[in-house]
Amino acid sequence: MASKFEVYKDRAGKFRFRLKAGNGEVVASGEAYETKAGAHKGCEAVQRAAADATIVDVDS
């Protein structure tokens, strides 16, 4: 199964997203958005950013 973004409403009534791997494990989650459209835009931003992302170790 392919990975997918899930958009959902949290207990506070805000919209959030989570990215699930093909095995169903949550590998990333987003901040709270006022609208569902905002959460969708958050998903799209992650998709764009991840395409060119590098891995950087910040602790020694």
From TrEMBL:
Query: InterPro entries per the record?
Result: DUF1508 (IPR010879), UPF0339_domain (IPR051141), YegP-like_sf (IPR036913)
List, alphabetically, the Pfam families matched. DUF1508
Which residue stretches, if any, does this entry annotate as coiled coil? none
Q: Which residues form the DUF1508 domain?
A: 10-57
Q: What is this protein called?
A: DUF1508 domain-containing protein
